[in-house]
């Protein structure tokens, strides 16, 4: 059984002191590949640097989270475009809209989001998307660019059944995190996950965030790690009525296909 974490923030400061141990633990937990998320220029550069050193185990993304949209300059955008052409950059993003916290003005978020969509269409790389409390503005823009995109994932999906339907109608992939393991906040996702077709399902930890609450025994640290990815797969299996092996297999195959990862699918049954 081999797993692929399609979204982990391993450039986060919480991993500075024990990064190698975190990687070793991930490999012991049967992870075959991790995509490191870029959320601004600095983290995108750091993620690509890690991926370049271990391309068989890491890929990266390049993007600007909507929270930082207000501070993104034209120079930043040019640098990001250049970096996006680098080897081992698997996707454009994290990008999208977040009207829950509004750390950046809506106008700035929309502008930077559209820039990412244009870049992804130009480079023919998939998009790694963030959407929170912004479906009504997010979906039409994604719909506009979808014919020119090679695909993408709505990462850390936590929205409604209606939003899920809309994204699946655009042939987007759906990224499920430890949110589904949360008996308090994750009930709607638990009910909806069975509606995600096997060929559109992806799994991720979003480390160091969203530690699965269903983990037993509870880790001493509240930091989430890629080694906990199997818990997400177990919760998906539980709430969708699927076999765990099927969840692992299809999510791995989907990740390899969407992000063109250097992972041999012949390993999946080993």
TrEMBL record:
GO terms for molecular function: hydrolase activity, acting on ester bonds; metal ion binding; nuclease activity. InterPro entries: DNase_TatD-rel_CS (IPR018228), Metal_Hydrolase (IPR032466), TatD-like (IPR001130), TatD-type_Hydrolase (IPR050891). Transmembrane segments: none annotated. The keyword Ligase does not apply. It comes from the Bacteria. A divalent metal cation 2 binds at residues 130, 155. Keywords: Hydrolase, Metal-binding, Nuclease. Belongs to the metallo-dependent hydrolases superfamily. TatD-type hydrolase family. This is Hydrolase TatD. It comes from OM182 bacterium MED-G28.
């Amino acid at each position: 059984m081999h797993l692929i974490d399609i979204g982990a923030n391993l450039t986060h400061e919480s991993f500075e002191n024990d990064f190698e141990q975190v990687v070793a633990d991930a490999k012991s937990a049967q992870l075959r590949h991790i995509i490191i998320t870029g959320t601004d220029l600095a983290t995108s550069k750091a993620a690509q640097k890690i991926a370049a050193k271990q391309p068989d185990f890491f890929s990266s993304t390049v993007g600007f989270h909507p929270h930082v949209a207000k501070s993104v300059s034209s120079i930043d955008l040019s640098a990001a475009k250049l970096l996006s052409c680098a080897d081992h950059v698997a996707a454009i993003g994290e990008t999208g809209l977040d009207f829950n916290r509004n750390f950046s003005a809506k106008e700035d978020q929309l502008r930077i989001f559209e820039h990412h969509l244009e870049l992804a269409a130009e480079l023919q790389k998939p998009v790694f998307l963030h959407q929170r409390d912004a479906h009504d503005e997010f979906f039409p823009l994604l719909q506009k660019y979808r014919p020119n995109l090679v695909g993408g994932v709505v990462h850390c999906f936590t929205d409604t059944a209606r939003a899920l339907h809309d994204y699946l109608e655009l042939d987007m992939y759906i990224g499920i995190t430890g949110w589904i393991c949360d008996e308090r906040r994750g009930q709607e996702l638990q009910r909806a996950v069975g509606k995600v077709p096997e060929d559109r399902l992806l799994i991720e930890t979003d480390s160091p965030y969203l530690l699965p609450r269903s983990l037993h025994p509870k880790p001493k640290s509240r930091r989430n790690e890629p080694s906990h990815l199997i818990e997400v797969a177990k919760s998906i299996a539980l709430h969708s009525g699927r076999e765990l092996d099927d969840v692992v297999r299809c999510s791995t195959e989907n990740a390899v296909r969407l992000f063109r990862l250097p992972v041999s699918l012949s390993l999946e049954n080993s």
